[in-house]
Structure formats: structure tokens, C-alpha cells
Amino acid sequence: MVWSARIFAMAGSAMFGWAFRYVGRRKRAERLRAAAGWPVVTAKLLESKLVMKDDLAGGLDVQDTQVEVPYYFSIADGYYGGFVRSVPCTDSEGRRMQRQLAEGMAVEVRYNPANPDETCVLEGENVGKLPFVVWPG
Predict the structure, then answer these.
(1) Separation CA 78–CA 116 (nearest Å)
(2) What pLDDT does residue 16 have?
(3) Number of domains present in the structure of the chain
(4) N or C terminus: which one in the chain shows less Cβ crowding within 10 Å?
(5) How far apart are CA 77 and CA 129, in angstroms?
(6) Residue 106 domain boundaries
(7) What is the DSSP string of 76-110?
(8) Which residue would you say has higher pLDDT here, 9 or 92?
(9) What is residue 77's predicted lDDT score, i.e. its pLDDT?
(10) Helix (H) or strand (E) holding 74
């Protein structure tokens, strides 16, 4: 009885996992399309950390982490922020990239003027500024 419940749970997870990933990819793609028209502002980076990779990020099995760097910026009515993530990497690659990051580094960020808490960092606008390839999102 216990084994059949486990098998059923695993089958359900596999059966619906693709649906959650599909919906997540669609939402992310829609957000990236919308962000292309948002205004650009220069933000300052804060201290980076290594995090487990996002399910949608892909990568190889050994690439199980991403470098995540929070940032902040100010516009007329206050301070806002978000974070930028690298593409998936190994732990050692991530630590090497972290050593190349400094607090206060500038990065170009797009923000939604209707809701400045909604931000996006696009790779093409930050080539050469960061020691990693930006995972769009």
C-alpha cells in the first residue's frame, strides 16, 4: 500500500511538473516582452550569494547553482530593488564569479513605471558589466 502511494505521487508529480514549467516559461516570456518597453535606470549591486538554480533555468545536472545579486535604484518617488541571476553554474564557477563582483557596481535595469517593484535585467544591456551571463527574468 505504501509503495503504491509513493508511485502514484511520483507519477502525479511527473505528469503535472511539465505543466507548471510550461506555464512558468510562458509567464516569464510575456514579462520579458513587456520589459523591453520599460524605462532603463542604473542600479547599484549589493552583496552576492549562491542559490539553488531555478527550475526553469535549465543547465546540466552538475550546474545546480546560480549567482544571485540584489540591486537597488532610486527614482523620483523612492527606492526600489530586485535581483539579477546568472545562468546555471557549478559551485566553483559561482564562487569565482562572486569574487569578481563588487558592491556598488552599476547595472542597467528596466522597471515597470506603473509598478517600480517589477524589474528586469536584460543580458544585452549589461554585456561586459557582469562576470556572468545574465539569466533573463
Answers:
(1) 9
(2) 61
(3) 1
(4) N
(5) 27
(6) 2-135
(7) TTEEEEEEEEEPPB-HHHHHHHHHT--TT-EEEEE
(8) 92
(9) 84
(10) strand 65-75
